[in-house]
Design a protein that fits this description.
The protein has two domains: about 1-45, no CATH class; about 50-320, TIM Barrel. About 25% of the residues lie in helices and about 25% in strands. The chain contains eight helices and 19 strands. The chain has helices spanning about 90-95, 110-120, 135-150, 165-170, 185-195, 200-210, 230-245, 270-280, and strands spanning about 1-5, 5-10, 15, 25, 35-40, 45, 50, 55-60, 75-80, 105-110, 125-130, 155-160, 175-180, 215-220, 250-255, 285-290, 300, 310-315, 315-320. α2 crosses α3. The relative contact order is 0.12.
Amino acid sequence: MFETLLYRRLDNGRVQCDVCQRRCRITEGNRGYCFSRLNQAGKLYCLLYGQVSTVMVAPIEKKPLFHFYPGSHALSFGTLGCNFRCPGCQNWEDAHDKLDFTRRWTTYISPEESMQMVKEYDCQGISWTYNEPTVWFEYTLDGAKLAKDQGLYTNYVTNGYMTPEALDMIGPYLDAFRVDIKGFAPSSYGKIAHISDFSGILAVTKRAKIKWGMHVEIVTNVIPGYNDDEAQLRNIAHWICTELGEETPWHVTRFIPYLKLSHLEPTPIATLERARQIGFEAGLQYVYLGNVPGHRGENTYCPQCKKLLIERDVFSVKQMNVEKGKCPYCGLVVAGIFL
């Protein structure tokens, strides 16, 4: 076990975890909402340091990140547990695990070993993904520090529900923040994530970009009956444009029925196309469709001359027409970080 970096001691042996915005108050012998942190004798311990459930070489487009070293590969690590219980979670076997460890789903990989693996697999960076990375925050922090020392990029794929304190601790070492905005109404977040106030997610996302200069891309998985109404989509697009900047990519992805939402239908493509149009109408320059293979909404077009800049086929880059960070046809600087 690894003593948590962000917690405070309370009375009667209780502790408060300050890694995520739930700020669980945990009595002795018990765990927080994510199951990954244990109060033992008045100290808070992370049970997951270095415990890897999933490791995979993946194109950075799979995160999805479309304007952050496109065409590169990240060694992607995941563990168990999450601070959300999304009813349609695609990684529920890991994310919803209660960490009794009886199934022995994890293998210990030290931060140093993870860096060695990144180089052995010829990846350009490391990504903590598949489940919420803050559940093993201390491990990702140590890994991010090593990665920066070795010239590798770093990426969080996150629900954004971390505390400002946690963000500020890892901020100097984290390059990309791919965050879910799951809706724009308390009712949507209540049904999807079991929280009523999502303002902290917005604040942390803005802080990641403004204070720490991280590359930020937003994903909204559009779920029929949950967050697909035009009011929410307009509000998400408006917020991204005004608070993060018109150059911030927004991915509107197709919901695939799964788990407790298996009774729903997949998101109609027309709904996604309308969401994309809403994004453009709000002033966003780059709005993408996800989970719709072969759709032109996967591609990057110049906001000024409308020429094709990056052609994609699902997660692979088929054609790259960005030269030194600019459109070769009209010279416009293309938002993002390019090889």
